[in-house]
Amino acid sequence: IVEKDRFQTLGDLRKQWTESGVETSRATVYRRVQEMGHRCRIPQVKPLLNQKQRQKRLTWATEKQHWTVAQWSKREMPKCLKSSVKYPQSVMVWGAMSAAVNAASYQEILEHFMLPSAEKLYGDEDFIFQHDLAPAHSAKTTGKWFTDHGITVLNWPANSPDLNPIENLWDIVKRKLRDARPNTLDELKAAIEASWASITPQQCHRLIASMPHRIEAVISAKGFPTKY
Q1: What burial class does residue 17 get, using C-beta atoms within 10 Å of its C-beta: 0-12 exposed, 13-18 middle, 19+ buried?
Q2: Can you give the three-state secondary structure of 92-139, one letter per residue?
Q3: CB 204 within 8 A of CB 82
Q4: Which pTM value belongs to this model?
Q5: Which terminus of the chain is more exposed, N or C, with fewer CB under 10 A?
Q6: CA 176, 43, 62: angle at the middle one, nearest 5?
Q7: C-alpha separations of 30 from 5, 35, 59 in Å
Q8: Can you point out the beta strands (E) in the chain?
Q9: Which of 11-15, 88-92, 199-203 tops mean pLDDT?
Q10: Where is the Tc1-like transposase DDE domain (predicted)?
């Protein structure tokens, strides 16, 4: 039964054994599975990638294989942080959240929040903007918006959250929110802001520095999902 379907839980196994007339406890099921040489693990949830998507991921990673951490640091990642070099140390933050974003509202966010943030962070220096392939991001009107504003957008492979370190920041926020238990919308907003404010620039820098390792992992996995 175990070898037929590796994704069954101990509860599933116990139910099947009970239905076949074998009364046993969950602990006994666990011991028997261990005795047979199997190990209980929680499966990692990864995006389903078809062959074409895997090839695009592999091509993308190969093209970026020799990018340095300094180059990745010049990529504008929405909702990320960058510490100021002035004393006393300060942090400039741009964050965005919405229940439903279409192309028009996304462009308004870019206009009113991303542009001022990029000006503060980079001044007149060039930078590369990164976003995924959400419909609002990949819309033709959004592409024209970036062209009209002279902003280079990083090409991005589909179904690749493991290549985007912002996902790790969201995971940090979620973990910090588990014990907050807000009861109202205002409490929820306050808890999110407090969780986000607790993220340090050093954490962001470490995530950016992980990009070369992520690229290597994709190449080693031949385009398949990685541990990231």
Answers
A1: middle
A2: EECCCCCCCCCHHHHHHHHHHHHHHHHHHHHCCCCCEECCCCCHHHHC
A3: yes
A4: 0.57
A5: N
A6: 85
A7: 16, 9, 43
A8: 75-76, 81-83, 91-93, 128-129, 152-153
A9: 199-203
A10: 95-189
**CA atoms within a 13 Å half-sphere pointing along the CA-CB vector of 215:** 18
* Percent of the chain at pLDDT exceeding 90: 14
**CA dist., res. 151 & res. 138, Å (int):** 15
In the block, tokens 């091509």 appear at 59
Q: Work out the angle at residue 92's Cα, subtended by the Cα atoms of residues 210 and 215, and round it to the nearest 5 degrees.
A: 15
Contacts with 48 (C-beta within 8 Å, 6 or more apart), sequence order: 159
Q: What are phi and psi of 56, to 5 degrees?
A: -65, -40
The 10s digit of each residue's pLDDT in 162-173 is 998 888 888 888
Q: Could you tell me which residues come within 8 angstroms of residue 97 by beta carbon, excluding any fewer than 6 positions away? A: 192
How far apart CA 149 and CA 3 sit, in angstroms, is 56
Q: What b/e string do you get for 192-214 counting C-beta neighbours within 10 Å, with b at 16 or more? A: beebbeebebebbbebbebbbeb
User: At which residue do the structure tokens 């389903």 appear?
Assistant: 48
Tally the C-alpha atoms within 13 A of residue 186's C-alpha that lie toward its C-beta.
0
What's the pLDDT tens digit per position in 73-93?
A: 766 555 444 444 444 444 455
Hey, is 64 helix, strand or coil?
coil
